[in-house]
Amino acid sequence: MHKDYRPDWDIYTCHIEESPAVIGLDLDLRRFAPLKEKPNAIYITVYLNNPREDGFPQNDEFAIMGEIEDSLVEQLQNKLDAHFVGRTFSNGVRDFYFYSGTTLLHDKFIADAMVNFPDYRYDYGVKEDNNWELYFDFLFPDVYEFQRIQNRKVLRMLREHGDVSEKERIIEHWIHFRTEEDKTAYWEHIKENGFALAREEKTDNPEFPYKLCISRSDKASEASIDSVVMSLWELAQQVNAEYDGWETSIMK
């Protein structure tokens, strides 16, 4: 794995085949995948014994699924050098996903992981997936949900430092542009929505050499941030630009 890789696990809600689902995955893998030395996807499906009406586990089974995950990760990482990339909860089952080079004896290692959980039925399978389509096309969130995940990370950090989200404060947003004309078009539109120009810069990025930092006083609640950020992101798409996140000060 690349030396810059840092595991970055997060979760989001969605639907899988019309059933409510929770997907957890290692987001940092997007920067390095597909890993050419690990072209084989391995999946393990574990069936819940007592799911809730919505298909998710009760409290006791949630903890057991965590123990099963730890056991599978230990076996497949140690015996196959497999990389654990994601998991799903939906429709009364928990699915675990790995990528590996060799798949020799994978069935034995899965059985060794499940031997301590005799009350749980499970299935497994292997699929050649050179382009990591399972990771990118199935597990990975769409662009809207990905941005909401990034928002939640910043909001969690603010809460951990005692931030009061309902207090308005100046929030800065960064946008990168391919041309000065795109930058001007963006600014002319966005200033009508009460944003101020905090600063603008020329960068050494050949693809996006122009950068704007705009600011406005807003709340740092999840609903407010998602609304503001998605509107800025959508406008950036319209002018072929790239929204690059936000930052603010802690309000107590």
Describe the protein in words.
The protein contains six helices and ten strands, in the order βββαββαβααβαββαβ. By secondary structure, the chain is of the alpha+beta class. The strands form two sheets. A six-stranded antiparallel beta sheet has the order 1-2-4-5-3-6, sandwiched between helices. A four-stranded antiparallel beta sheet has the order 8-9-7-10. Strand 4 and strand 5 form a beta hairpin. Helix 1 packs antiparallel against helix 2 (106-114) and helix 4 packs across helix 6 (222-238). The longest helix is centred in the N-terminal third of the chain and has 22 residues, at 59-80. The mean pLDDT is 94.
Question: Short description, anyone?
Answer:
With 252 residues, the chain is an alpha+beta fold.
Global mean pLDDT: 94
**Spatial gap, N to C terminus:** 41 Å
The string of secondary-structure elements, in order, is EEEHEEHEHHEHEEHE
Total strands? 10
The proportion of strand residues reads 25-35%
Largest beta sheet: strand ordering: 1-2-4-5-3-6
Structural class: alpha+beta
| Net shape | elongated
Q: What can be said about the biggest beta sheet? A: 6 strands, antiparallel
Low-confidence segments: none
Question: What is the alpha-carbon Rg in Å?
Answer: 22 Å
Give the count of helical stretches: 6
Helix content: 25-40%
